[in-house]
Amino acid sequence: MQTLTVGLGERSYAIHIGSGLLGRPELLKEHLPRKRAAIVTNTTVAPLYLEKLQQTLASIGVSSVPVVLPDGEKYKTGETLNQIYDALLTHRCERSTPLIALGGGVVGDMTGYAAATYLRGVPFIQIPTTLLAQVDSSVGGKTGINHPLGKNMIGAFYQPQLVLADTDTLNTLPDKELSAGLAEVIKYGLIRDLSFLAWLEQNMDKLLARDTVALQYAIARSCQNKAEVVAADERESGERALLNLGHTFGHAIESGMGYGNWLHGEGVAAGTIMAADLSQRLGWISAQDVARIRQVFERAGLPVVAPDIGADKYLEWMGLDKKVEGGKIRFVLLKEVGRAVVYGDAPAELLRQTLDACVHG
Predict the structure, then answer these.
(1) Is 240 a catalytic residue?
(2) Are residues 130 and 188 in the same domain?
(3) How many CB atoms lie within 10 A of CB 147?
(4) What is the domain count for the chain?
(5) Which one is catalytic: 16, 42, 76, 184?
(6) Is residue 52 among the annotated active site residues?
(7) Is 236 assigned a catalytic role?
(8) Do 102 and 189 have their domain in common?
(9) Which of 172, 197, 224 is the last residue of a domain?
(10) Mind listing the pLDDT tens digit for each residue in 170-191?
(11) Is 35 a catalytic residue?
């Protein structure tokens, strides 16, 4: 097991990464003082891991209230959020009752938002079961739900007390979901960790084959990058925005295609190719750099051509992005491979050229 720390003063917390962690009650014990917890999961993950976690909690005398939600991005809504509140109120969960998120990014985001708002804040533990959640969404305290007019537009910054990333849960992850998680892994190399990008290019086949040593290394390196960024800029006033490389385009893809039709990681992959293309048109990176970026996403089994929802639709959805400031769409772009910047002055003509080029391959 490897343990990293997200350094936020009194609110600092550990990220444990390794095999078999779901069966280690000592990692959870100090965060469960009142012998009761609520576990929020979904219909896919519950049959696989809910009983195991409940047994682990029972071994230290902790009873659990299971809350099983429908699975999928399209259920990341206020209506589904109310199912969590309904269960917590029905079972009279108190301010000292921790909410444990057992699942992927959707479960983690919704559980975190429920924890931030139920009784104005209850303890929160992340047990991510997808690669994307283990390397990105479970770390850093971004919580929330989608709205028909925009992805993740309603939420709160609310940090967990603990992140438990059991790599064994990746054994049941569909190949498509594994690839989707790799999109966020690749992102760290592109924005701030060039040597990690080179490592990924050398080890992509091992990651796709679910080599446990390679996966644990990639998860730990990703979490280390994210932890450093979050510690420096918890509420995304500066450096943390760079973690959104490809996300402005990617969220437009997810929203425009209908939530759940493109996985988040797939949208990020195609969106990152678009960000790279725009970076090249601005004269910052070369055609060879763009080709290198495209190749690493292709090798990860990810889409590199964006869906054609129409340039006007892209602009409309991107205009609803959280990073819009003063009416300007702000993009995370690459000054060079390994160094990202936030940029709000992309000429409209170049942006339309990028939309046209990346949609049609």
Answers:
(1) yes
(2) no
(3) 15
(4) 2
(5) 184
(6) no
(7) yes
(8) no
(9) 172
(10) 999 999 999 999 999 999 999 9
(11) no
